[in-house]
Specification:
The protein is α/β, with parallel strands linked by helices. Helices cover about 40% and strands about 15% of the residues. The protein contains nine helices and eight strands. The chain has helices at about 10, 20-35, 50-55, 65-90, 110-125, 145-155, 195, 210-225, 240-245, and strands at about 1-5, 40-45, 95-100, 125-130, 160-165, 185-190, 225-230, 250. Strands 3-4-2-1-5-7-8-6 form an eight-stranded mixed beta sheet, with helices on both faces. The structure holds glutamic acid. Glutamic acid binds near residues 131 and 145.
Length: about 260
C-alpha cells in the first residue's frame, strides 16, 4: 500500500514547542516497521515553526511573517536531524522535500517535477519527509496548513491511504470540548453539508490546522480515490490497526469516481 501519514505539531512537540522524544521515537519505529512490511510511506510533517519557537526560546508562536519564517528555518533543521537519526536506527533513508502551492498546481511543470522526484525516491526505497517551504511562503503562494498539503500530495502520487495524526480522536457529532456526550463518527461515506457543519474553527496553539482543514483534506483525498483516516497521534501504534481496517478514529471512504 502507498500511504501518506501526516503528523501535526501537537503530536511531535510538547506545548512548550520542545520535542516530544518518546512520541517521535514510537512514530519512527512504527513507520519503519510498516516500510519493512512492504508499504510505501510518505511522511508529511509539521512542527518546523513549533520547534523553532522552542529552540529560539520565543514566548509563543509568532504572528508576524519574518519571525514565523525564521522559526521555521531553525525548526526544520531540528526536525530533519531527528528524523534522520531515528530512521537511520532502523536502516531507513530519509529525504527532505519542501514545497509551496505553485509546486502542486495542475498542469504545471513543477507539479510533474515534484511527482517524478517523489516517485523516484519511493522506487529507491527512501522515506520522503515533506513540509511546506515556510521560509519562502508568502501570502500569495502559501498552502497554509499541512492537512491540505498532505491531501494534495496523496492525490498527486496516487496514494491508497492518507492518515492525519492529530491531537483529537477523529470527527465528533458535536464539539467534545463542550458536550461530554459527543460521539465519535466511525465512518463517513459521503462529505455532505451535514458533515461540513460539524467542523469547528480552531486548532492547537502551536499548530495550524483544525477540523475545517481536515475536512478540506478529506474532500481532496477522497475525490482522488484515496481513503482518509483522522486518528489520535498520541498512540502511533494505532497505525497498525488503521491498516488492518480496524475501527480507529474516523474513516472517510473514497468517492467512486476517484480511482
Ligand atoms: N508548515 C508548518 C510547520 O512545519 C505547519 C503547518 C501546519 O501545522 O499545518 O510548522
Amino acid at each position: 500500500m502507498r500511504i501518506v501519514v501526516k503528523v501535526g505539531t501537537s503530536t511531535l512537540a510538547h506545548p512548550t514547542g520542545r520535542l516530544n522524544i518518546q512520541r517521535m521515537e514510537r512514530l519512527c519505529k512504527v513507520l519503519s516497521d510498516l516500510k519493512n512490511a512492504g508499504h510505501e510511506i510518505i511522511l508529511v510533517s509539521s512542527g518546523a515553526i513549533g520547534m523553532g519557537v522552542g529552540k529560539l526560546s520565543l514566548p509563543s508562536k509568532p504572528s508576524d511573517m519574518p519571525t514565523k519564517q525564521a522559526a521555521a528555518a531553525v525548526g526544520q533543521c531540528e526536525l530533519m536531524y531527528i528524523y534522520d537519526k531515528l530512521f537511520t536506527e532502523y536502516n531507513h533513508v530519509v529525504a527532505q522535500i519542501l514545497i509551496t502551492a505553485p509546486d502542486l498546481q495542475e498542469a504545471g511543470s513543477r507539479k510533474s517535477n515534484f511527482h517524478n522526484t517523489l516517485a523516484r525516491l519511493l522506487e529507491l526505497g527512501a522515506l520522503p519527509v515533506i513540509n511546506e517551504n515556510d521560509t519562502v511562503s508568502t501570502d500569495e503562494i502559501v498552502i497554509g496548513d499541512n492537512d491540505t498539503l498532505s491531501a494534495a500530495v496523496a492525490s498527486t502520487i496516487g496514494a491508497d491511504l492518507l492518515v492525519l495524526l492529530s491531537d483529537i480522536d477523529g470527527l465528533y457529532d458535536s464539539d467534545p470540548h463542550k458536550n461530554p456526550a459527543a460521539r465519535l463518527i466511525d465512518t463517513v461515506e459521503r462529505l455532505d453539508a451535514r458533515i461540513y457543519a460539524l467542523a469547528g474553527g480552531e486548532g492547537s496553539s502551536l499548530g495550524t490546522g483544525g477540523m475545517v482543514t481536515k475536512l478540506r483534506a478529506a474532500r481532496i483525498a477522497t475525490e482522488a480515490g484515496c481513503e482518509m483516516v483522522i486518528a489520535n497521534g498520541s498512540r502511533p501504534e494505532n497505525l497498525y490497526d488503521i491498516l488492518d481496517g480496524a475501527h480507529v478514529g474516523t474513516r472517510f471512504l473514497p468517492q467512486e469516481e476517484g480511482k
